[in-house]
Amino acid sequence: EHFRAVYEHAYPADELMPLTCRGRVRGQEPSRALTQWVVLNKTKEFEDAVRKVLRDVNLDNDVVVSVFETNIRVLGGLLGGHSLAIMLKEKGEYMQWYNDELLQMAKQLGYKLLPAFNTTSGLPYPRINLKFGIRKPEARTGTETDTCTACAGTLILEFAALSRFTGATIFEEYARKALDFLWEKRQRSSNLVGVTINIHTGDWVRKDSGVGAGIDSYYEYLLKAYVLLGDDSFLERFNTHYDAIMRYISQPPLLLDVHIHKPMLNARTWMDALLAFFPGLQVLKGDIRPAIETHEMLYQVIKKHNFLPEAFTTDFRVHWAQHPLRPEFAESTYFLYKATGDPYYLEVGKTLIENLNKYARVPCGFAAMKDVRTGSHEDRMDSFFLAEMFKYLYLLFADKEDIIFDIEDYIFTTEAHLLPLWLSTTNQSISKKNTTSEYTELDDSNFDWTCPNTQILFPNDPLYAQSIREPLKNVVDKSCPRGIIRVEESFRSGAKPPLRARDFMATNPEHLEILKKMGVSLIHLKDGRVQLVQHAIQAASSIDAEDGLRFMQEMIELSSQQQKEQQLPPRAVQIVSHPFFGRVVLTAGPAQFGLDLSKHKETRGFVASSKPYNGCSELTNPEAVMGKIALIQRGQCMFAEKARNIQNAGAIGGIVIDDNEGSSSDTAPLFQMAGDGKDTDDIKIPMLFLFSKEGSIILDAIREYEEVEVLLSDKAKDRGKGKKNPFNLNIHTCSPFSSADTRSYISFIRNKKRLYRVVLYTVY
Ligand code: DMJ
User: Can you tell me the distance from the alpha carbon of 337 to that of 64, in angstroms, rounded to the nearest whole number?
Assistant: First the structure.
């Protein structure tokens, strides 16, 4: 149904904008959702989709694209489409007319990407112009110096497949060269790689290292390159990195970023949503226990916030509130189900589907969550939602006979396109001979479990996975990490540290001396923040170590207080009339005056534009806004003045819409509408602010449906089923301590500029 919606409302644009039911155009690239039709057993639809792509797609557009995204989404989509097209053709019923046209298109695209590799390192430039290539004036790209590790290290599957399908070896050679370079540049003592690297010098630009954003699929492609191409050197590299990941980054059930040079040092106190793919990769590696643990932790975060927030803290609070419908968790759920056969993972999948239907479904598709706390939406549905999320969820519940081919004969690319495993024996002219292995013998001690089989892994123990999950049952909601208990105990004495957190100055040498004595080290982060890490064993004495713990605890409290002060509570405008029925939720900014929606019941009403539209003088259409929620344009007078004018005209609420065309809460920070410096107690109605992009969704709705009813609230309410509001925001009281006994850390904001910027946003 939703693939059809894409074709109906968006085609030939790349993606559907699900709130406005329009196509999102970024250049006429091929449809990125080809392979799904075959997996869903919609062979006829696949055939039609291929014809459409061949008829409508033009790769010669003057558009600057990401080499990484174009590779995984477009090239991978074409190659996956080709793989399934030839499989169907061979079966003799469908695609009989097919003559490698998708492959020819893939080859054309492959050649268009090659100029990006024109660097001394062999690492590709991050962006390329599909028509003009790179570094020419009209290309508008080619001056970049850095790229991310995943950007340079996620090419080998598609590029090798292209080489092996066509016999043109250059693609595989280039992808191998980039991988060889990254391998050479790994930090030799930790065997970890950083997040970004200079493509000319090979220096690490960001020296933090995790398994999420910026690195994720580099690791995935090393292991999958081994599976697809059968080349041991990829497995050796993967295993070396994997050991390092398990030693430093994996702190079960958490996966925490560290510094490549000092891998015992955590680089952050939060995790990003992209790392949710990692349990799936661990299944492929055969390391099931930590996969079950991390997956369970992630599932509890999802149960708490309905979706995996883009980033969440070590005590499972929201760090970045958006959720662009990422598929990684569904992917890991699918692989864990395949590995364990435990029906628990079907229940997990069911919850994912229920939450998608309940919170993300909108009239034209599924909308990304702008803020999981308020339930507000963004007008986007990324192609990975169709290519990956739908596919993994479908496959999770599919029986073998539901799929018309044997999926075990294929490998999933990072975008879940399918490449056939028989490629390993085809056109292998550039495989092993170009790679030099540092190993004489392959360390495969942990590799006997490849393609996990429940019989081998946990014979006669159907409760194996459950027994690993059980101790983690309350990890998110009820239990605090162990470290905090020690601190609380030490606090019972009431003693105070020799240096109080609130007095601490990072530039005061005496303070630094005290810190050192307490075993606390201080790191200045590039973004202006300061990170404190305590190693109790580095303290001068056990008493100093205890003082250090007290100091850290104070600092944590101070930091979370500061964060709370800076946080802008977003509000929600929900369109509740036909055909939206509460399914479209827009992120809104609050006002420092008028009815506080976090304390009062929501306000519901039909909307009406005020006249004058800026609301800066007495309204000339009071009869139109009476008893309604007035729409007013930003500008020309104070927000409070607008509020008074619409209130006097009898409005029950107001929505101020930004006058800066194109502004959006996707790109601009939300702010609170300030009063006018005088007493604003006379303003009794609720006032919310929408950026222009969100505002135009309401204005468009009025144009189309005339009568538009909205709900102003602090978070989206249940969609008319009379149930309690499903968007619970649980405030967790644990502090972000590491569970390691001797280590605690905190990263806090002491950058006055940032504070000042936030203050600035709150004034009119
Ligand atoms: C996908 O495009 C790919 O899986 C990529 O490797 C990282 N994640 C996105 C979707 O979240």
Answer: 40
Q: How far is the CA of 414 from the centre of ligand 1 (A)?
A: 6
Does ligand 1 have an atom closer than 6 angstroms to the CB of 217?
yes
Instruction: Compute, in degrees rounded to 10, the torsion defined by CA atoms 624, 626, 628, 629.
Output: 90
Query: What residues have CB less than 8 Å from 615, skipping those under 6 apart?
Result: 630, 632, 633, 637, 641, 642, 645, 646, 654, 656
Q: In this structure, what DSSP letter does residue 391 have?
A: H
Q: What is the pLDDT of residue 48?
A: 94
Q: Note whether 468 and 289 are within 8 A (CB).
A: yes
Rounded to the nearest 5°, which phi and psi values hold at 674? -85, 160
CB 327 within 8 A of CB 376: no
In sequence order, what are the residues at sequence separation of 6 or more whose Cβ sits closer than 8 angstroms to the Cβ of residue 677? none
pTM attached to this predicted model: 0.77
For ligand 1, mutation pick of 216, 307, 381 (most atoms within 8 Å of CB): 216
Q: What is the CA radius of gyration of the chain?
A: 28
Three-class secondary structure of residue 730 per DSSP: coil
Task: Tell me the CA distances in angstroms from 138 to 3, 126, 717, one per residue in order.
Answer: 36, 17, 49
CB of 79 within 6 A of ligand 1: the answer is: no
CA dihedral 292, 295, 300, 305 (to 10 degrees): -170
Is 414 assigned to a binding site? yes
- Per-residue confidence at 754, pLDDT binned at 50, 70, 90? very low
221 lines ligand 1 (CB under 6 A): no
Q: What is the pLDDT of residues 661-678, one digit of tens each?
A: 888 887 788 888 988 878
Tell me the C-alpha distance between 712 and 709, whole Å.
10
- Which residue(s) pair with 312 in the sheet? 271, 318
User: Residue 341: helix, strand or coil by DSSP?
Assistant: coil
Distances (CA, A) of 175 to 116, 172, 193, 236: 11, 5, 17, 17
What distance in Å separates the CA atoms of residue 54 and residue 102, rounded to the nearest whole number?
Answer: 7
Residue 323 DSSP one-character state: B
User: Which residue, among 583, 586, 626, 587, has the nearest Cα to 607 in the 3D structure?
Assistant: 626
Answer whether 70's CB lies under 8 Å from 29's CB.
yes
The two three-digit tokens of residue 65, written as one number: 């694209």
**Residue 525 in this model has a pLDDT that exceeds 60:** no
Distance 131 CA to ligand 1 centre (A): 25
With CA atoms as reference, report the closest residue to 497 among 531, 539, 546: 546
| Total residues found in the chain within this entry | 764
Q: Are 715 and 375 in contact (CB under 8 A)?
A: yes
In this structure, the residue with its CA closest to atom 8 of ligand 1 is 274
